[in-house]
Write a structure and sequence with these properties.
The complex is a heterodimer of chains A (250) and B (770).
Chain A: E1 3-9, E2 18-24, H1 33-46, E3 68-70, E4 73-74, E5 96-101, E6 109-111, E7 114-115, H2 118-125, H3 148-158, H4 165-169, H5 176-187, H6 196-209, H7 220-224, H8 232-246
Chain B: E1 3-8, E2 22-31, E3 40-51, H1 75-88, H2 119-126, H3 132-135, E4 139-143, H4 147-159, E5 162-166, E6 184-185, H5 197-207, H6 214-233, E7 248-249, E8 259-260, H7 266-283, E9 287-290, E10 293-301, E11 304-312, E12 318-322, E13 325-328, H8 349-356, E14 361-362, E15 367-373, E16 396-400, H9 403-411, E17 424-425, H10 427-431, H11 441-456, E18 465-468, H12 470-484, H13 491-517, E19 526-535, E20 538-539, E21 552-554, H14 572-592, H15 606-623, H16 631-645, H17 652-672, H18 684-708, H19 732-735, E22 737-742, E23 751-756
Parallel strand pairs in B: 4-5, 4-13, 5-9, 13-21
Antiparallel strand pairs in B: 1-2, 2-3, 6-8, 7-8, 10-11, 11-12, 14-20, 14-22, 15-19, 16-17, 16-18, 18-19, 22-23
Helix pairs in contact in B: 4-7, 4-14, 5-6, 6-14, 12-13, 16-17, 16-18, 17-18
Classes of the chains: A alpha+beta (250), B alpha+beta (770).
């Protein structure tokens, strides 16, 4: 199929950036979206032009490295996938496709479609861990049985790949889904209880400090999340946050 | 003069042994090829041990005396065993012209003395430590943030060292370890199926085709149980059963269930555990994290690794970083094949630069080709996707028995489900009844290739076999129907119930398959084909995980030590975390103890100047080359040479051709590659160019190594060395060694050093899974 790509080009952080048109021919429907961009880049390089810079690495939807905003949707029109798992069979001949970076104040563009997500790391550094030494002198792994239901819920929350789709999608650029996934994982496990109060307060404060917006419960983040992280996690985090602040018993 | 006798296997001067210490008894065979030639000695372990004080040195002087004296309570059995061993010793099987191996004296494995099971504990008790106050004055650089690098960074920082960690990704959480699906092995024996440290050790050595270092593997098995405890304490959500206890599954090449998992995302959960441990130390200021930085050289000062040159991938700036020791955790080099299951950015650059600065590169030809990957679909393909080995727990692999069905499938006239049960060839179950679909990866891959080469491939390209879940769905469905009191003969009820169970076990993998291939694997069998997945070879390290350059360490997939010629499933995660959490943090102290008075390492030395200058020159050369071909153009050609000639089956001629072709391609690359953009900005093409340039050198050494090893073992299969049934034929007499290559200016001129592999606690046998 033949497509008309409209791609965001921005030389550097300071550059203003603009949309540039790139027609592309003979795209196979079996290609992944990123393979289509590979073909485009190969063409650009052979013409001596600079290729389009985009983040990508594993190409199997688990690193959370790829980050495109395609036709106004994070990771494109398909559901439950990252951009690298999006296939061209979702498009048809003659389509115009807008390709932009994830946009949020806290995720500034570095070049073209690449954004700086270090603010997301900093939120994790504020409390996304259990303070246990890695010396190996821990108790036996089966010493505390964990109800399967909680273990499964904790796992579901922990599958967040930290790609930032929820933030890019949110009209407030809120990181609530991302942060709540980590808070939920630990609040559902006995190992996370000891520091639960500090964790939720520190992570939420850091999120505000980094310039992420607030949550107004539109639920768009859940729809666009490639890993299907549930909105329930946000409620769980709100409950944790409230009880931590007011010293309520859970 | 040919003589057969017994001797004790001394590992150090006789006088250093206590009388009560136990030594292995060996058979010694003295052999002269001719009257005047020097006698060769062939030594073979008997597996029988004896205390020094029970050894009768003059046993041969009298026919009534035996090697083990009657002071040993078990002397009768031992002497009987020895006699049996001598009788079984087949002189005629020894090669006529065998020369004594020239094992390297440079390579010191530093394996501690003592009994295998006590080596690590005793060693830890004796090694030098750095006191906590001094650790604050010592810097350590870690390159890479996968399971090995992430866990090492966290633990070193926790111990008190100042850690500087580097990764090329935008966050340490995005290292390739995260893509590991199936699970992690640990000898916990929670299932009570007879698992033990020894059994895990045994399986790993056997799975590695007896080409790994015994002591390292035993240590790995020993600390494996600790990893699970550690990860659970960190909040890693492993799969649990309804009683709330940890669940296990089974992997290829073993007969127990020892694999812990978190659905098909075990690597992700473990890496996020290591990442969270790192975050804790980053917050405390003990780790300074350098994201989007690529190491481009290691700096050696006075013979010791003292820093690195790194490129800031955002600004293009070339930076100098110094430290008292450098740890490489930069992963494997599977991307030398262009198409592999590795992430697009995975590369050999850090390891290769270290090699060029004096670190020996060991066994580069040992590559794991994973049997269950999604087949390739076209020329534009950028990478291959792995389907976890855990699928072989429940999936059955087959191709049609008859050519007419193969043709029907390819022309689209029939579907897999139309082929009757009796017309299917479940070739793994047929060839290897004991292990069936759970044979190790190298065996399963070669068997798939064999069927496809014979013309039974089931897709258009003829390079695919079926992985079928219908039996598992029916089996689980019946079980559930019984439990729920439903009709077990109602096919649709049974199928629905069975599908749900399979979904709960492998849901994300099935979804991934469906997204890529656009077929529903619950209804029609998956199509799979082998693909490059992991590299067992890597930088040579001793027992301390130190390379041949003092102060330079290599951990995880970047080193060579634990998996021999073939890695068992779910062992990579185990090794990465074992090295990072539990081994390196101890052993590095032994080296750093000498550095407590050194003070900070300056970056204003001539060594740093020189290294930086060379890095900049190389970048300038690439940027100003103005050639006509893209980087990927070269990478794809290299990949094709590697796959065709150094892939699943290798021949002498093919390897010789590969060496010549790669050399030529490298020359062409440096003359004609085109890298657009500038060096002082983010430039993804420049990053790729540097990595491919290094792959073009590694590829040549790879082929040279494969050519030198005239045997088939594990992931290295030479067609000349196979049985008529197509099974691998190892040559233990000649090749029970590690090939460690020293760089001397050109990959093809690399010098070979051999580290002898001794098996004292395990009997070396033909690896059979039949």
């Amino acid at each position: 199929m033949n497509l008309n790509l409209k791609i965001w080009r921005q030389k550097s952080k300071k550059d203003k950036g603009k949309i540039v048109d790139y027609p592309i021919a003979n795209v196979s429907e079996h290609m992944s979206f990123l393979e289509m961009l590979d073909v485009l880049n190969e063409e650009l390089v052979s013409k001596g032009e600079e290729p389009v810079a985009f983040d990508h690495d594993c190409r199997e939807g688990i690193f959370g490295m790829c980050s495109l905003y395609i036709n106004g949707e994070a990771h494109g029109p398909d559901r439950g996938v990252t951009t690298c798992q999006l296939h061209m069979r979702k498009f048809k001949d003659g389509d115009t496709i807008f390709i932009e970076p994830f946009r949020a104040t806290a995720l500034p563009v570095i070049k073209d479609l690449i954004v700086d997500r270090s603010s997301m790391d900093r939120i994790q550094q504020a409390g996304g861990f259990v303070s246990v030494n890695t010396s190996g002198n821990t108790q036996d792994a089966n010493a505390i049985p964990i109800p399967k239901e909680n273990a499964d819920l904790a796992f579901d929350a922990a599958t967040c790949i930290g790609c930032g789709a929820c933030i890019a999608t949110c009209k407030n650029s809120s990181a609530m889904l991302y942060v709540s996934a980590k808070v939920s994982q630990f609040s559902l496990l006995p190992q996370g209880q000891v520091e639960a109060k500090d964790r939720v307060i520190n992570m939420v404060n850091k999120m505000d400090e980094e310039g992420f917006g607030n949550c107004t419960n539109t639920g768009a983040c859940e729809v666009e999340c490639p890993k299907g992280i549930s909105l329930d996690n946000i409620s769980r985090m709100n409950r944790e946050f409230l009880s931590a602040n007011f010293g309520l018993k859970k | 003069m040919n003589k057969l006798t017994f001797s004790l296997n001394y590992r150090k001067p006789k006088s250093e042994y206590k009388r009560s210490e136990e030594l292995m008894i060996c058979i010694r065979y003295y052999h002269k090829d001719s009257e005047n030639s020097k006698a060769r000695i062939i030594k073979k372990s008997t597996g029988v041990k004896c205390r020094l004080k029970d050894w009768d040195t003059d046993w041969h002087k009298n026919s009534n005396r035996y090697p083990v004296k009657s002071s040993d309570p078990d002397h009768e059995r031992k002497n009987k065993l020895l006699i049996e061993k001598v009788e079984a010793f087949k002189i005629y099987e020894l090669p006529a012209q065998q020369k004594k191996q020239d094992f390297s004296t440079l390579l010191k494995s530093k394996v501690p003395d003592g009994e295998l099971k006590n080596k690590w504990t005793t060693y830890k008790d004796k090694i030098n430590l750095v006191n906590p106050a001094n650790k604050r004055n010592i810097d350590v650089i870690v390159v890479g943030t996968g399971l090995a690098g992430g866990s090492a960074s966290a633990t070193l920082a926790e111990l008190g060292y100042n850690v500087k960690t580097f990764c090329y990704q935008d966050s340490p959480r995005r290292a390739h370890s995260i893509a590991a699906q199936g699970g992690i092995n640990a000898a916990k024996n929670y299932q009570g199926d007879g698992d033990s440290t020894y059994r895990l050790f045994y399986d790993t050595v056997k799975g590695g085709d007896y080409r790994s270092r015994e002591a390292n593997v035993y240590r790995l098995a020993e600390v494996s149980a600790n990893i699970i405890d550690q990860c659970v304490a960190q909040g890693v959500p492993f799969a649990r059963d309804y009683g709330g206890l940890l669940d296990n599954r089974s992997f290829g090449g073993v007969l127990v269930s020892r694999t812990f998992y978190a659905k098909g995302q075990t690597g992700q959960q473990l890496l996020l555990g290591a990442y969270s441990a790192m975050n804790r130390q980053i917050a405390r200021g003990k780790i300074s994290m350098h994201n989007r930085h690529e190491m481009l050289d290691v700096v050696i000062v006075d013979g010791k690794a003292r820093g690195i040159i790194a490129r800031n991938l955002v600004t293009g700036e070339i930076e100098r970083h110094s430290a008292h020791a450098v740890v490489l955790a930069s992963g494997g080099y599977g991307n030398v094949y262009f198409l592999s299951t590795n992430a697009m950015g995975s590369n050999v650059t850090a390891a290769w630069k270290a090699h060029k600065k004096g670190a020996f590169f060991a066994n580069p030809c040992y590559t794991q080709i994973h049997p269950t990957c999604i087949p390739r679909s076209g020329d534009y393909q950028s990478k291959l996707t792995l389907m976890s080995e855990s699928l072989r727990n429940d999936g059955r692999i087959w191709v049609p028995k008859h050519m007419k069905d193969v043709e029907g499938l390819r022309s689209g006239k029939i579907k897999a489900v139309d082929i009757a049960e009796e017309d299917r060839d479940y070739y793994l179950e047929r060839r290897y009844p004991a292990f069936g679909n759970l044979v190790p990866r190298d065996v399963a891959s070669r068997a798939a290739k064999e069927r496809c080469d014979a013309g039974y491939g089931v897709n258009q390209t003829g390079e695919a076999v079926f992985l079928d879940f219908s039996s598992a769905i029916a089996r689980y469905g019946k079980e559930q129907a019984l439990l729920k009191g439903l009709d077990v003969n109602n096919t649709s009820v049974v199928t629905n119930l069975g599908t749900e169970i399979v979904r709960s076990k492998y849901g994300n993998l099935f979804q991934m398959y469906e997204k890529i291939v656009d077929e529903n694997p619950y209804k029609t069998p998956m199509m799979i084909y082998p693909a490059v997945h992991y590299t067992m070879g890597g930088i040579w390290v001793d027992y301390n995980l130190m390379t041949t350059v003092p102060g330079l360490y290599a951990i995880g997939e970047a080193n060579f030590s634990d998996h021999g010629a073939n890695r068992l499933g779910a062992s990579a995660l185990m090794q990465g975390l074992a090295d990072g959490y539990f081994v390196l943090p101890y052993t590095i102290g032994d080296y750093l103890a000498d550095d407590i008075r050194t003070g900070p390492i300056s970056i204003d030395s001539k060594e740093f100047d020189e290294a930086e200058k060379l890095v900049k020159e190389r970048i300038n050369k690439l940027i100003n080359n103005n050639g006509k071909n893209s980087v990927d153009y070269y990478h794809k050609i290299l990949g094709k040479i590697m796959w065709d000639k150094c892939g699943m089956a290798r021949t002498e001629q093919g390897l010789k051709e590969a060496i010549a072709e790669i050399k030529q391609l490298r020359e062409d690359f440096w003359n004609n590659v085109s890298v657009p953009g500038q060096e002082n900005e983010m430039n993804t093409e420049l990053e790729k160019a540097g990595r491919v340039a290094d792959f073009l050198e590694l590829g040549e050494l790879f082929a040279k190594d494969a050519l030198e090893r005239n045997e088939s073992c594990g992931g290295h299969f030479r067609e000349e060395y196979s049985t008529p049934e197509g099974e691998a034929k190892r040559d233990d007499e000649k090749y029970t060694y590690v090939s460690a290559w020293e760089y001397t200016g050109q990959p093809s001129d690399a010098k070979l050093h051999k580290e002898e592999l001794l098996f004292e606690n395990i009997e070396v046998k033909v690896r059979s899974y039949k």
